[in-house]
């Protein structure tokens, strides 16, 4: 393979990308005897500012970073926070390795004062949340109107709840519940099942 230029191209592990005299090896590459090779399947890129060559992995494993929008399952409600398992990022919908834990502090559940998290979430709910902090622990917020619960089960019969004009209603038993809902028509999340989300 010829040395990379400013155009991206698909490369395989071991593909020659250029010499160490021309480029600096970046992420997804390695250097051997002054020659730079791809270490992963992906798309090669050259940064013209510092002449760094890197390979962006194809089907990369999603990582949690500050600012990401994620789907998370509520596992436990405490006085000051909801403890959640992060399932996927909204961008990839691929499972996040290790099912990391994230928390929503009571002050980050919605805009304004929140008396109790039990009024906003329930165990098993699927949240659409934004990552406020990724290290050393993951902190989430559902305060913006676009974020909140996207899938929930009836606390009486455990059937999936349906969104109505004034909250949530169980199509099976008619029980009505309130949640801090994500703004928008997509409720529940397509294909979601809190009982089976892992």
- For the biggest β-sheet, the strand order reads 8-9-10-12-11
Query: What would you call the structural class?
Result: mainly beta
CATH topology of the largest domain: OB fold (Dihydrolipoamide Acetyltransferase, E2P)
Which consecutive residue ranges, at least 5 long each, have pLDDT under 50? 1-6, 185-198
Q: Rg, please?
A: 22 Å
Specify the helix fraction band: under 10%
How many distinct folded domains?
Answer: 2
**Beta-sheet strand percentage?**
35-45%
What string, H for helix and E for strand, traces the elements in order? EEEEEEEEEEEEEEEE
Oligomer: single chain
The CATH architecture designation of the largest domain is: Beta Barrel
N-end to C-end Cα span: 42 Å
How would you state the average pLDDT, rounded?
85
Count of alpha and pi helical runs? 0
The major pleated sheet works out as:
5 strands, mixed, barrel
- Give the C-level CATH assignment of the largest domain: Mainly Beta
How would you name the CATH homologous superfamily of the largest domain? Nucleic acid-binding proteins
Question: What is the count of β-strands?
Answer: 16
* Approximate shape: elongated
């Amino acid at each position: 393979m010829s040395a990379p230029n400013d155009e991206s191209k698909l490369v395989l592990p071991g593909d020659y990308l250029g010499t160490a005299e021309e480029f600096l090896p970046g992420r997804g590459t390695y250097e051997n005897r002054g020659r730079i090779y791809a270490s992963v399947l992906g798309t090669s890129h050259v940064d013209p500012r510092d002449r760094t060559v890197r390979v962006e992995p194809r089907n990369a494993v999603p990582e949690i970073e500050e600012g990401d929008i994620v789907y998370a399952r509520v596992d436990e409600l405490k006085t000051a926070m909801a403890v959640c398992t992060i399932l996927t990022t909204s961008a990839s919908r691929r499972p996040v390795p290790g099912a990391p834990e994230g928390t929503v502090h009571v002050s980050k559940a919605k805009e304004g004062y929140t008396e109790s998290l039990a009024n906003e979430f329930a165990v098993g709910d699927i949240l659409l949340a934004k990552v406020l902090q990724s290290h050393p622990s993951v902190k989430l917020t559902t305060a913006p109107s676009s974020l909140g619960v996207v899938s929930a089960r009836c606390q009486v019969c455990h059937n999936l709840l349906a969104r109505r004009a004034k909250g949530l209603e169980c199509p099976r038993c008619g029980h009505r519940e309130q949640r801090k809902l994500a703004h928008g028509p997509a409720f529940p999340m397509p294909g979601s099942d809190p009982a089976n989300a892992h």
